[in-house]
Specification:
This protein is mostly beta strands.
Length: 358
């Protein structure tokens, strides 16, 4: 009888040890009254509350009220996530490093998207620094994580400044050659009213005279094309809706805007890379980065099947993502800025989302 009792106790201990880690929520505040909430599950920005032109706080990102709704068995979304190891697509899920080929998950039109089937957006980060206006998260990614090589230690540090900016810094090291390309995947709706406001009525500026065309599987072709005379020219601010459904092959391939723009900022993170303006609320978002590219995804695959905060249905083009990063499929295009990280090196990336009003 004693042996049976001990076996039962051991089973309970093992079961308790296997219990899924619970997501935690951290809220940053600044002197201006702005609030940003972040969960350690996927390093996700859950809410961003900023004042509109009347001084009323509006939550300007999509997400869920229940943190467990971010779990993939409930909703497979990238809302607010710190993406890794590799943001965007890798052709056929194949990379070759020092003559060795690695087959990654093929989870999007035959390609590897956002780190694979269970990329870092579906993994827990550890909070290693928590302050009133700063949160530093750590992700320990073992060798073979989604078939990527190398044991990687990565950090994402969110700082909320008193100028209403979310300053995001990424760092990573590895013990074996690998590829790293991190970004934040927040879905912005600057009206704060995604139930009734589409981003096609917002105004976008992109500091980019070129972009990277894609085929009908959303994979970059290797070309760097001029935006001149195309629906991709946002060098002067204009309505997103003006060109998003244009009779254009690239618009058809992307189902709208889902492309990487080649920034003209030359890695200078003090120069505006992108600016989004919502006339309905008066809220402006400026993006700064030291990365060479920015992926603009205009919510083309939001289809009304996901219910978010307050039970609001997220319909087609309810939000837009502005993802600062290396170009898609950089590991297979050596002429593009490299994403290779070797032992002894430190990957770093910087992005700033600065909010204001007009």
């Amino acid at each position: 009888m004693k042996r049976i009792w001990l076996a039962g106790l051991l089973a309970l201990m093992v079961c308790a040890g296997c219990k899924r880690q619970s997501p935690e929520l951290y809220t940053l505040k600044n002197a201006s009254g702005m609030e940003v909430s972040i969960t350690n599950y996927g390093g996700r920005i859950v809410s961003v509350k900023v004042p509109d032109r009347e001084g009323v706080l509006r939550d300007v990102v999509l997400g869920f009220d229940d943190l467990e709704d971010y779990y993939p068995e409930r909703n497979e979304t990238d809302f607010g996530a710190s993406i890794g190891r590799y943001a965007n697509r890798i052709k056929d899920g194949l990379i070759s490093i020092d003559g060795k080929q690695y087959q990654l998950p093929r989870n999007n039109y035959g390609h590897c998207l956002h780190g694979g089937t269970r990329g870092w957006q579906y993994q827990f980060y550890n909070a290693v620094e928590v302050g009133e206006n700063v949160l530093k998260l750590e992700r320990i990614s073992p060798d073979g994580d989604q078939n990527f090589p190398g044991n990687v230690k990565a950090y994402v540090t969110f700082t909320l400044t008193d100028s209403n900016a979310i300053d995001i810094r990424y760092e990573a090291t590895t013990d074996a050659a690998t590829v790293i390309n991190m970004t934040n995947h927040s879905y912005f709706n600057l009206s704060g009213d995604p139930a009734s406001h589409s981003i096609v009525d917002d105004v976008l500026y992109l500091n980019a005279s070129h972009y990277t065309p894609v085929d009908d599987t959303f994979m970059t072709t290797g070309e760097i094309a001029s935006v001149e005379g195309t629906p991709f020219d946002f060098r002067k601010p204009r309505l997103i809706g003006e060109g998003i459904d244009a009779d254009d092959e690239q618009i058809r391939n992307g189902h709208g805007y889902d492309h990487n723009w080649v920034l003209d900022t030359a890695g200078d993170d003090t120069v505006v890379a992108a600016e989004l303006y919502c006339p309905a609320s008066g809220i402006v978002l400026k993006v700064y980065t030291d990365e060479p590219g920015i992926q603009v995804y205009a919510g083309n695959f939001l289809d009304g099947t996901v219910k978010g905060k307050g039970g609001v249905v997220y319909n087609h083009r309810t939000a837009i993502c502005l993802e600062t990063q290396k170009y898609p499929d950089t590991p297979n295009k050596p002429e593009w800025p490299s994403a290779l990280l070797r032992p002894g090196e430190t990957y770093s990336s910087h992005c700033v989302f600065e909010f204001g009003v007009k």
